[in-house]
Request: fold
Amino acid sequence: MSIRILLADDHKLIRDGLRALIAGEQDMSVVAEAGNGREAVELARVHTPDIVVMDINMPDLNGIDATKLILKNNPDIKVIALSVHSTRRFVKEMLKAGVSGYLVKHCAYEELATAIRIVIKDKPYLSSQIIGTVMEDYATDFKSDKSSVFSLLSSREREILQLVAEGLTSEDIGSRLFISGKTVSSHRRHIMKKLNLNSVAELTRYAISEGLVSSEY
Reply:
């Protein structure tokens, strides 16, 4: 039976390349593609793939929070992170979100195919570089990174921070999250107070520095 895969990456070139390579595998098929985290959550709900190959830095909703929502909606789905990030912060947050595998984007395609076949059997897969990062984390006794955006802000606050940093108005954000613009403004004030920031420009710079959004957006 074919392994059904959802690709989530904001770069179409990467999605096209992965789709073409997966097409050459007899036991795999791509059932859907998402260009942002929120789309990935919705497509995972609609298509119920076996595997989601998930980028981290994506517009609208980052891959960490998208992973949490996907697994909350359907714990049977397996998520494999495929990212340029191999630093402790991103690896730790993706593992906490519940991913079954983590690879860096410069890995060979054959390693991703191997990871998919291992993860579908309910076994974890980490690339050698990520194993090194995890081991370093154990060596420091998993000290809490209290300065991380993922420690300081709630999931909803991170959603709003990301959308503010991407240039959406309170009304636009409210429409997207099904809450009022007034509620969004209230959340934004709380976020600024928590982070000790005083303007949207400072919020945007903070979101970029934390890797919540890319400077491309």
Summary: The mean pLDDT is 91. The first strand starts at residue 3 and ends at 8.
